[in-house]
UniProtKB/TrEMBL annotation:
Gene Ontology MF terms: kinase activity
Record domain Histidine kinase: where: 446-638
Transmembrane segments: 397-417
Matches recorded under PROSITE patterns: HIS_KIN
Native source species: Jejuia pallidilutea
Keyword Signal in annotation: no
Designated name of the protein: Sensory transduction histidine kinase
Record keywords: Kinase, Membrane, Transferase, Transmembrane, Transmembrane helix
Amino acid sequence: MKDSLVSLLCFFIISVSLSSQEKLYLNDSVLHKIETFILKDQLDSVSVLIAKQKQTPYIEVLKRIYRKDNPSYSDYYKFVSNVANSPGVSYGDVSNYINKTINTPQNYNKINLDYVTLKWSQVSKLRDEATIEEANTEQDKLEAYIKRFNPNDVNTIKANLLASTHQLVLLQIQNDVKRGKALCLENLKKADELGDTRLKIIFLYHLCDYYIIEGKLTEYIQASEQSLELENTLPTKTSYYIGTIIHLLDAYIYKGSNKKRVEELLSLLYSKQDTRQLSYSLYAKYISTLGADSSKLQSVFKQFEVSSVLEFCKKIESLGENTLNPNDFFHVLNESSRALASHGFLNEAIRYKDKCIVLTRKIYSEDLSQSLSSFKTKQAVKAKEVEIERVTERSNLYIVIATLVASLLLITFVFLIRKRKQSRLLEIKNSQINQALKEKELLVKEVHHRVKNNFQIIASLLELQAKSITDEKALAFANESKNRLKSMALIHQKLYQDKEGLINFDQYIRQLINEVSALHNSKDKVDIHIFTNNLFFDIDTALPLGLIVNELVTNAYKYAFSNTINGVLHITINKINNGKYKLTVLDNGPGIPNEYSAKSSEGFGLNLVNRLVKQLNGTLSIYNNNGTCIEIVFQDKNARKTID
């Protein structure tokens, strides 16, 4: 019981697994948007989306991070682990977020294992998906932090064991089997003495890498099966679980035995959406061992909906090209080459092997040798420092360690009891809140729907009234007012249709331009280019911004394109930084007089634009640039709140 509680506090892999399970109960697409917006610091969009989500522990984690409400290192670990595994997210962006947002703990009395686990995960990901040099840089930061604490403390020992996995991988790359295997066995023994099952699994995994270099296939299989047995004793699997399954599949396929076990493990990988891509190279390797008339080969073809080995290889290449990291995609290409060769497609096999060579050059550049050389020098210096410290430092801290561990266990036990009580109360409150939120959401949608209808009724009345107006100025004013009402009605229509409470301004502006073009009967002679970069705004920003665009486009049709053939209009909205955006409207018309001033304009349209720009805490600039160019720098709702 004690060991399991210590392990729970030491490694947050369990909580990450729980957060991953928790995601299954949320809308994955919306949750991915929230995570991406946090990663990109688009906090205005986060505030709208996160308020609509069901109150769960992981949503509470995201709220603490987004609001900067004293999030813990375990909160950050859950977030970066989830977002790093999301489709379309570069780990370089995740690593930059970690370095920019998460500071090193300043408490030097006790090591923070949550922070250690976070940095260890960053080092591993950078080593696998970026460069070794970047991984070395973060490894140095991690080791510098661990070095602050007493090396004889149990938690410091665990932190050092975890950090040593980077050295094990680099020794493997250097093919230094003797040192790497010795270090691996030594660390495995320490993990066993500590009774830490998760650390034992980690070092069994790396020990398998050295067994395979030595060609000890039997030991390789035994260690992998032992690791899976240990996994089955844990309440949640470690991050090495899938890697161990892949180890076993490699071994059994290479050995050509136990095909039932191979099919069982392949099916396990393929059946899970988040590991399916990792099964592609292993299926290709398995196909290499099957005969052309094998029923098992036909079974694989049926599973992937192909009819030949060549079609199979093309399909897994297509599936993995843009989603797998370079190392995993290399294995897909390499195993596809072998499968093609074994089934007589020699020319295609050579083509796939050429792709492997090109990809390998990208993965292992000239920087690799420099990184390894730098790593060797640092390791030699560290080894000398450790030797000096062992000679000069002797302290009897075992009683203190035992007291700390006992206190930690007691605190943990009390915390778990309180947490269980709080969870029960939270479930009841969440149920009540969720019901209230649903009712409020329906009410808000109905309000937007009715506002939209009211705007449309007024616009229709203006349209009817305009038919009896003979004065051109009055008629123009009525038409412009009708168009303004339609732009506002369109905002509320978008809000009524959107479940998340945000307006996709790209879709909105295109529909608005179509309305304005139809009104001026100039759709065929004006070439309109819209660049809004898929931006989302709430109603407090979208409504005045939509009216501004309506006025500027209407003015362009009235003054720029009235006598212009082949008119061109560019509308661009770009994010600058920290909640600031720039709207640019550029036409190829005759331009404006040099003495013209937007602030002193007597026209109703530009006066309205000036007021709306002030409402957005923005600035307005008008100048000639082969036509009239209007630039408006404005702020979103979140930035405006900060100023207020």
